Amino acid sequence: MDRKVIRVGMLGLGTVGSGVLQVLTQNGEEITGKLGSRLEVKKIVVRDVSKKRGVGVDPSLLTDKPEDVLDDPEIDIVVEVMGGVEETRHLITRALENGKYVVTANKDLLAQYGADLLQVAGAHGKNIYYEASVGGGIPLIRPLKRCLAANRILSLRGIINGTTNYILTQMSREGKEFEEALSEAQAKGFAEADPSSDLEGRDASYKLAILASLAFSSRINLADIYVEGISEVKLRDIRYAAELGYAVKLLAMAEENDHGLKLRVHPVLIPLTHPLAAVSNEFNAIFLNGDAVGEVMFYGRGAGSLPTASAVCADIIDAARNIKHQVENGIVEATFGEKPVIPIAEQVSCFYLRLKAKDQPGVFASLATAFGDARVSLDMIIQKRSDAETAEIVLVTHGVSEGSFGQAIAEIKAMPAIKSINSILRVMER
Amino acid sequence: MDRKVIRVGMLGLGTVGSGVLQVLTQNGEEITGKLGSRLEVKKIVVRDVSKKRGVGVDPSLLTDKPEDVLDDPEIDIVVEVMGGVEETRHLITRALENGKYVVTANKDLLAQYGADLLQVAGAHGKNIYYEASVGGGIPLIRPLKRCLAANRILSLRGIINGTTNYILTQMSREGKEFEEALSEAQAKGFAEADPSSDLEGRDASYKLAILASLAFSSRINLADIYVEGISEVKLRDIRYAAELGYAVKLLAMAEENDHGLKLRVHPVLIPLTHPLAAVSNEFNAIFLNGDAVGEVMFYGRGAGSLPTASAVCADIIDAARNIKHQVENGIVEATFGEKPVIPIAEQVSCFYLRLKAKDQPGVFASLATAFGDARVSLDMIIQKRSDAETAEIVLVTHGVSEGSFGQAIAEIKAMPAIKSINSILRVMER
């Protein structure tokens, strides 16, 4: 079946949808050349067909009835770029049941129902493509599934939320406080009006669930990911970190050892010599460690209309290739098991701690004793005078179990000479 | 045809071949899980079957007769990791004619005969996979062919030779001169006993030919690539570059405009803020600009037994998938045209120039006049006293045609006050 035309139906025509239309139009000739078939967008489902659209959208393509796409036997590929979870899930299920390939950029949906949807796809001999769900245009899903297929992935660490990375970069480079950097990110369109999902690390945890699932061939429950956002990161800490040779980034991390998976999203002090430390502003990067390939990193724009459309269109082309060649392969994810997850309390971290203490003899000795009692060994120390009676102390520990560290902190908090514990952050080992 | 076992024959068992065998063994279970079939290495062609091999090679697999692999109808995939060009080309041609898929890591062969071999493959409904030919384990070929398929690639710039990058990094970080850094690279196994192909940029030009061919859907003749190596790069220039905010790297670059392709390999001063500037030692990275995706970078180990084996094995798995599903697609390269190439003399560059002049009034004015006459405008200037009578002058120009710059240099050389022109390097625009 060598088809001359392969027909695409779209659900949604927002930022990403418009980008998809633009890419398919402006690079249509090249795509036809590479694919050997022409891609034709036949219908686009929108909420309001009368709304004014940008140039280049033929109004006759628009409909407000999802069935015009889902039930049209001429449409081979359904591209979901409308967002949302519950309604969208039902539309995608129906598309798969009707024998269509599905391309989606919807990380929220995939993180929550990805395994179920992949099972529906498998049952109908079709597939779901989701390259655009993580890292925008950066190739990640396909490299994990194909290019690194011969590797056991040991760990992955990613800057996969552009909003928080933009804010942290601005704090670090321009000396802005969190609130100011956030307002600027909102003004530039790098942060949404309600930025809580980004700032609190939820967005990154969805993306981590998708990546870790593929990297470790395991279903991931969102509840198993330890998540901490960046709203407690102070400019003061970013400056101390720089003094100690670190950049502060929100990292999504996954790692496997003999006991199971470690899954976490939180701010991390990254050594300035590490390639991830140089990833700035709205850029994303994912750093992987495979048993054969060693360290690899993928870097690029993690969001935006055209970068995301680049990934969506690559998926459409892949789906079209499989339709041309009648291949229904690659549904490996549907068969994933569920690996045990190691709770955060049982994991080992290095910590950065900033506190204020009375500037009097013996304070540091008692601090050191508290750490020693909890078997926490110290790597770096800065002590500065804060005012006449107060010293500000910054410490970086060697690797220690989260439990032992918590115990040391409880003991320190109870010491009369300690005025306040101002910041606790985790540190990537050099 | 859902095959339980897919059989592999290998040509060669050197560094990369041993790595392939190791990866297929240690991750065999995972690979079978992902592929749904078991990969079995049936025969390995070596020059000397009696030579002592590392652990884990079953001697009964070894043969010194290529026909034991090429003509065995049970073998589906031929993995070429023996290197060399002429003999290897004939062996691969025979494998394709016998209906086998071919996986190769051989950049020299591909840069010279890739288009012909892909045509043979196409004629027999088979394919050649060559992910490992550029960038070792870094996924590059597949991302270019698949993940960025919807993009028109505007430009690519890569650090794709680990030897030269190791040497330049050591010169820059440890203050070593070229010769010392080269000896050390040889001692550490990052440079060969005869390093000329690496140092003179030939190795990088082969890899560039492969990448540019895919990126711009055009056959590339090696003779069309302008190539300059690193043996003229002085520690002194690396230090001046750092003072001006640049790192010196050997870059392979390709770019397309309305008139054709620009293809070049030479040392470049890269702004320290550019992600490529942070790629150090034996690491490789390729920075791409696509019209939809924007800037993306792929980073990792560009050589070594296991990283290269990671890419070879990914290709084997892909070939096996296509055999399972009887797909003979993806031979887009065989249909490439040949785009015009813009000669270096017609290209525009920014230049770094270091020279010595008599320390006397009016010298700088006459230099500036010479540049002005040739319409070369200056971006940065450093002048230092070299000895009592000599000033060392370092200049960075704005973009200028290579022809105009050559004209200015000829004029300057003829000036009595100019003692010597010590270095000319090109500069990446900020």
Walk me through what this model shows.
- The structure is a homodimer of 430-residue chains.
- Chain A has 14 helices and 17 strands.
- Chain A folds into three domains: 5-137 and 305-335, 3-Layer(aba) Sandwich (Rossmann fold); 151-301, Dihydrodipicolinate Reductase, domain 2 (2-Layer Sandwich); 344-427, Alpha-Beta Plaits.
- In chain A, helix 1 (15-26) crosses helix 12 and helix 7 (162-174) crosses helix 8.
- Chain A has 430 residues and is an alpha/beta fold.
- In chain A, strands 7, 8, 9, 10, 11, 12, 13, 14, 15, 16 and 17 form an eleven-stranded mixed beta sheet that branches. In chain A, strands 3-2-1-4-5-6 form a six-stranded parallel beta sheet, with helices on both faces.
- The model of chain A has no long low-confidence stretch (mean pLDDT 93).
- At the A-B interface, helix 1, helix 2, helix 6, strand 12 and helix 12 of A face helix 1, helix 2, helix 6, strand 12 and helix 12 of B.
Summarize the structure.
The structure is a homodimer of 430-residue chains. Chain A has 14 helices and 17 strands.
What is the mean predicted local confidence, pLDDT of chain A? 93
**Class from helix and strand fractions of chain A:** alpha/beta
User: If you compute it from the alpha carbons, what radius of gyration of chain A comes out, rounded to the nearest whole angstrom?
Assistant: 24 Å
Largest interface: A-B, 58 and 58 residues
Q: Helical stretch count of chain A?
A: 14
Total count of strands of chain A: 17
CATH T-level fold name of the largest domain in chain A? Rossmann fold
**Major β-sheet annotation of chain A:** 11 strands, mixed
Number of folding domains of chain A?
3
- The end-to-end span of chain A amounts to 55 Å
Q: Specify the CATH class of the largest domain in chain A.
A: Alpha Beta
- Approximate strand percentage of chain A: 25-35%
